[in-house]
Write a structure and sequence with these properties.
By secondary structure, the protein is α+β, with helices and mostly antiparallel strands. The protein has two domains: about 180 residues, Vaccinia Virus protein VP39 (Rossmann fold, 3-Layer(aba) Sandwich), CATH 3.40.50.150; about 100 residues, Quinohemoprotein amine dehydrogenase alpha subunit, domain 2 (Lipocalin, Beta Barrel). Helices cover about 20% and strands about 40% of the residues. Strands 8-9-10-11-12-13-14-15 form an eight-stranded antiparallel β-barrel. It has a seven-stranded mixed sheet with strand order 3-2-1-4-5-7-6, with helices on one face. Helix 2 crosses helix 3. The structure holds S-adenosylmethionine (SAM). The site of S-adenosylmethionine has 23 residues, from helix 3 and strand 2.
Length: about 280
């Protein structure tokens, strides 16, 4: 909230009209540049590499995707409503020798298709982040890294958060920026049917997952007992600690590492010499 007030104050000091900031609409996000060292921090926290396709939503002068292409050989797409900024971005990309790696699109981010991204970057406003959140969660592939300058994503907690000094920041008296990273979690919520194989043989299971962003809880129903537990989701991978029932052999929780892909879930837990394998397919969401 303090940063929002600082940003608003900054806009006023810069003479940028605030008309209708609350509630915000995406076309009212003003043009403010991310300082170069904060761009570096955003690309570093996302661990951008040559395989990546970085899409900056509201790309300004193109600096984020241009830096990603120049420094990490990543491909990039910048999307902005302002045609002048799109023209400037293309000129900047040419000057930096990365025109073959990056594209700029004059479009409203709310109409744009950014599903191909492996990394999404944003310097928008809190309300706009929240408006984009459902699309980020449901359209982007699990594992996509999402980085936001200064604004969070409400009750979707970041996977990482970093405060960096920003002496060149054009807004706010504090001259520092917060960089947030989220990793889009796979969707595991719902019911799954499968098999748990362990030292004693195989048993059919039904798994009930509940999920809140990258946190999950599970009940694994076997014939005579139920395993319950919770875990965290990172991209398409789930680390799940399952507590055994009191009458089940062994006492320590079983720590499963599971992978979810194409409606299938598979992984294992090791308990000393004993190996448990869980395989399941999705029943219903
Ligand atoms: C705060 S600036 C960030 C610029 C750049 N990403 C950076 O970090 O330096 C926000 C940008 O979003 C653009 N913008 C605002 N609303 C938009 C919308 N609905 N669709 C596309 N771009 C938008 C503005 O023109 C502005 O360039």
């Amino acid at each position: 909230m303090i940063i929002l007030l600082q940003m608003i104050l900054g806009f006023l000091l810069l003479g940028i009209p605030l008309g209708g900031l609350a509630p915000a609409h995406a076309d009212e996000v003003p043009y403010i540049q991310t300082p170069t060292n904060v761009v570096d921090a955003m690309l570093a926290i996302a661990e951008v590499g040559p395989q990546d396709y970085v899409i900056d939503l509201g790309s300004g002068d193109g600096r984020i995707v241009i830096a990603a292409a120049k420094r990490y050989q990543a491909r990039g797409l910048g999307i902005d409503l302002d045609n002048w900024l799109i023209a400037e971005s293309r000129a900047n990309a040419a000057r930096e020798g990365v025109s073959s790696k990056v594209e700029f699109l004059h479009q409203d981010i709310f109409l744009a298709d950014f599903r191909a991204a492996t990394v999404v970057t944003m310097y928008l406003l809190p309300e706009v982040n929240l408006e984009l959140r459902p699309r980020i969660l449901f359209e982007l592939r699990p594992g996509t890294r999402v980085v936001s300058h200064d604004w969070d994503m409400g009750d979707w907690e970041p996977d990482r958060r970093l405060v960096v000094e920003a002496p060149d920041k054009p807004v706010g008296p504090e001259k520092e920026s917060t960089v947030y990273l989220w990793i889009v979690p796979t969707r595991v919520a719902g019911y799954w049917r499968g098999v748990l194989a362990g030292p004693g043989g195989e048993e059919s299971v039904v798994i009930e997952f509940t999920q809140r962003f990258q946190k999950a809880t599970a009940n694994v129903w076997l014939r005579r007992w139920v395993l319950t537990g919770s875990g965290s989701i990172r991209g398409d991978s789930i680390s799940l600690s399952l507590q055994r029932s009191s009458w089940m052999p062994g006492s320590k929780p079983l720590s499963f590492t599971l992978r979810v892909a194409d409606g299938r879930l598979e992984g294992e837990a090791l308990d000393g010499e004993q190996r448990y394998v869980l395989r399941a397919t999705r029943l219903v969401d």
